[in-house]
Amino acid sequence: MLIEQPPFIFRLFFTESFWRIQGRDKCVYLTFDDGPIPQVTPWVLNLLDEYNIKATFFCVGENVARYPGVFEEIKLRGHRVGNHTMNHISGMKTSVKKFLENVQFADSLIQSNLFRPPHGWMLSAQAWYIKQNYRIIMWDVVTRDYSNKLNGEQVFNIVKKYTRNGSIIVFHDSLKAEKNLRYALPKTIEWLMKEGYSFKVFS
Q1: What domains does the chain contain, in order, with CATH numbers?
Q2: Which of 35, 115, 131, 195 has the fewest C-beta atoms lying within 10 Å of its C-beta?
Q3: Where are the alpha helices (DSSP H) in the chain?
Q4: pTM of structure
């Protein structure tokens, strides 16, 4: 529970962040972290096209530099992109200065006003500076698709158990998550549609 859906008290540490976006519409926000990579991201894009869904991709700068064509394809297909640092560094293990430099380096490639810290953690001073230029997007549901201790069905069950109106849901377009993602994402989309959810991106 502490991982899949952070409790209210945990969210108080980052009150300047968006964890869930409630509104009148029954909706969710699909997000993908750690890409883009050619082995996984194009498959995700094709699947989203199949269901006419838009999502937000929080990209690692070094992957954008390595696979610029895949990054451009995300934008060409009408999805939003966000900054996930240049090297997927941990804010808790990095000085404020070096963390901000890393984010700025990634911004030179990604150019987005959305930011998500790797692992969902950063120092309060880092968050204060970043919120001056970015909307900090956290999450309401982490699918844990990256875990080698879970299978695709268990990942799908996490979505079913914790998703609610306004949930920001995190998947990963990464090699580590690929096996679970390929199973759970189509089932997740179909289940969400059956439950009457629409899919939104951040304005």
Answers
A1: 27-199 (3.20.20.370)
A2: 195
A3: 8-11, 41-50, 61-66, 68-76, 96-110, 124-130, 152-162, 178-194
A4: 0.95
